[in-house]
């Protein structure tokens, strides 16, 4: 660090040099990310609330009111208006909070959680931090959580079962209805990780897509992760955790002696209010109609990509349920295919099971980007 400060114009110039090295979503070249260009209304709202700290909500009652309204709106979206939760940094923190609540409420000596093999790696982090034994349930032929495998793994120490609505790699929706029944019968916390699916499944269902129930309408569901910074178009970092009952937040409340609130249930202390303001602004600005439009446009592009991939002689590893298209080549390995695509300037991502290239058709991917991608794909194996 220099002793003498640098004039601001020079600083901005220096920053631009760094920024030029970054990819942008707008370029349409990022094919493997669950994030996207933040919506300008969310960006403006975010900037308006940069100073507000929801870790000390008595100082920012306006922002706290926004958070309460956001939680109610997300609850309405997910089948239950009176839910309890917070806007936090993302899916990882939300899943960590859900596992912590479940563990604290059950209070057994060697707590275990059951997740599908397709679960996001955040559950490994949660298990490590919370000293939970992580049991992985098998997947069925369609890469969804296998219910008989779950039943085999349940024991007296099971504090939570996790189902995923929109898996990270393939966009699959686990059989949450069956999990709900089992968890209700056996009094086990059912957490639904809808970090990705939470902002798209309800809107596709409203638009006539035949997708299964996954939310609080199912009585066994105790908590849901839903990330505004994925399909919700909010700036990073914006995640959401919702609980069915107040007791879930209370089970992890810690006394906060020097702050304007007495108890705090979140993992982080100082917590931006900007993410909450952005989420609120976008829910109000886009409304259900706007989000339906986002969801159905992504699916239209998804179908176009799906068809183009098949026509170019590649294989889908599974039919897309949401806006994720996993595919591979019958001729070259997935690693070779990824390399050739990267050489042509595409930022791709690999799924581990089944091994494939996964394209996440986020709102920044438009039909023209997919056309360019398909043109490159058609020539890629003949090289
Ligand atoms: C299903 C699911 N859960 C959780 C996460 C973790 O979210 P974050 O990266 O916002 O912490 C992801 C990230 O892709 C995800 O796909």
UniProtKB/TrEMBL annotation:
InterPro entries: GrpII_AminoAcid_Decarb, MfnA, PyrdxlP-dep_de-COase, PyrdxlP-dep_Trfase, PyrdxlP-dep_Trfase_major, PyrdxlP-dep_Trfase_small. The modification N6-(pyridoxal phosphate)lysine is found at residue 230. GO terms for molecular function: aspartate 1-decarboxylase activity; pyridoxal phosphate binding; tyrosine decarboxylase activity. GO terms for biological process: carboxylic acid metabolic process; coenzyme A biosynthetic process; methanofuran biosynthetic process. Its EC number is 4.1.1.11, 4.1.1.25. Its cofactor is pyridoxal 5'-phosphate. Pfam families: Pyridoxal_deC. It comes from the Archaea. Keywords: Decarboxylase, Lyase, Pyridoxal phosphate. Pathway: Cofactor biosynthesis; methanofuran biosynthesis; Cofactor biosynthesis; coenzyme A biosynthesis. It catalyses: L-aspartate + H(+) = beta-alanine + CO2; L-tyrosine + H(+) = tyramine + CO2. Belongs to the group II decarboxylase family. Sphingosine-1-phosphate lyase subfamily. NCBIfam families: tyr_de_CO2_Arch. HAMAP family: MfnA_decarbox. Catalyzes the decarboxylation of L-tyrosine to produce tyramine for methanofuran biosynthesis. Can also catalyze the decarboxylation of L-aspartate to produce beta-alanine for coenzyme A (CoA) biosynthesis. This is Probable L-tyrosine/L-aspartate decarboxylase. It comes from Methanobacterium formicicum.
